[in-house]
């Protein structure tokens, strides 16, 4: 009996990893880390290094120091309009699409009639790429054959929704918000389903109105979802490329930093060093927004 008990005790103890287990663990962890280094951080480090050089991709690499950045900030007319447009994207997605997606999620979570239909319909644009959304925008907003001008009856003097630089950025932002709203709605809807219903019941017993319950009880409980939505919104706004490139190759009022990177690296100019400098600026702006947002959210978690 004592020997049997000792054997059972040994079996219940922590299992030692064999060489095969360690090998499998190294492969499962090593391959993703290796791919991340090769496909993400490797090109990132290369872009930072190339941003200080003058290279056309064919000849020798010449050191340029801060010359690319000086030219970018002082003598490149497309840069500041692109920065302004990226900020407009961030404001539109963050201040319009995100609150509207939260509103739709709250309404559907209340169990309105045909909620499944609304949920599927509003989420449908999310499965489309921004390039496809751009083609849909062209079908609707085209000057000569667009559906919107046909409905407005502007046959003799149609509005050039996508060609007018004073209008096209707002039309494209409307299309981007249409897609982003469904994405935000699904994220918040999943978060609302995980909120403890006893919190709402306790607030109702204390005499809180439905609005007070949402803003003072439910919304603070959605803090993890708020972090995810905030980071995704910043990333979507700063990496926007497909839709404006599909409409007019990101020109005539639709300039974005991502388009400038592509035009300088892949275009006829092939100024890889200069394009890398624009990519580094976009990287720093992205990191600035994301890190600041995450630090604020983590501080809020510590105070709770």
From TrEMBL:
Its main location: membrane. This is Sugar ABC transporter permease. PROSITE patterns: ABC_TM1. Residues 83-295 form the ABC transmembrane type-1 domain. Keywords: Cell membrane, Membrane, Transmembrane, Transmembrane helix, Transport. It is found in: Cell membrane. InterPro entries: ABC_transporter_permease (IPR051393), MetI-like (IPR000515), MetI-like_sf (IPR035906). It comes from Streptomyces chrestomyceticus. It comes from the Bacteria. The chain crosses the membrane at residues 21-42, 87-108, 120-141, 169-190, 272-295. Belongs to the binding-protein-dependent transport system permease family. It is a multi-pass membrane protein.
């Amino acid at each position: 009996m004592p020997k049997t008990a000792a054997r059972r005790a040994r079996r219940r103890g922590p299992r030692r990893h064999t060489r095969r287990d360690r090998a499998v663990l190294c492969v499962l962890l090593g391959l993703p880390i290796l791919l991340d280094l090769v496909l993400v951080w490797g090109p990132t480090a290369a872009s930072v290094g190339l941003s200080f050089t003058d290279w056309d991709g064919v000849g020798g690499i010449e050191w340029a120091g801060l010359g690319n950045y000086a030219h970018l900030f002082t003598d490149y007319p497309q840069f500041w309009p692109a920065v302004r447009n990226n900020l407009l994207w961030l404001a539109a997605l963050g201040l319009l699409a995100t609150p509207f997606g939260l509103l739709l999620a709250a309404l559907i979570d209340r169990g309105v009639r045909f909620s499944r239909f609304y949920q599927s319909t509003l989420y449908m644009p999310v499965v489309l790429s921004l390039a496809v959304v751009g083609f849909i925008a062209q079908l609707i907003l085209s000057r000569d054959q667009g559906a919107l001008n046909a409905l407005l009856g502007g046959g003799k003097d149609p509005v050039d929704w996508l060609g007018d630089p004073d209008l096209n950025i707002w039309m494209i932002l409307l299309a981007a918000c249409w897609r982003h709203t469904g994405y935000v709605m699904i994220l918040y809807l999943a978060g609302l389903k995980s909120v403890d219903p006893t919190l709402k019941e306790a607030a109702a017993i204390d005499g809180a109105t439905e609005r007070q319950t949402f803003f003072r009880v439910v919304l603070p409980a959605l803090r993890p979802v708020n972090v995810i939505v905030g980071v995704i919104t910043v990333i979507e706004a700063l990496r926007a490329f497909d839709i404006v490139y599909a409409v007019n190759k990101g020109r005539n009022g639709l300039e974005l930093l991502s388009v400038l990177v592509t035009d300088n690296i892949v275009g006829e100019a092939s100024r890889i060093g200069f394009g890398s400098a624009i990519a580094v600026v976009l990287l720093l702006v992205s990191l600035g927004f994301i890190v600041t947002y995450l630090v604020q959210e983590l501080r809020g978690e510590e105070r709770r």
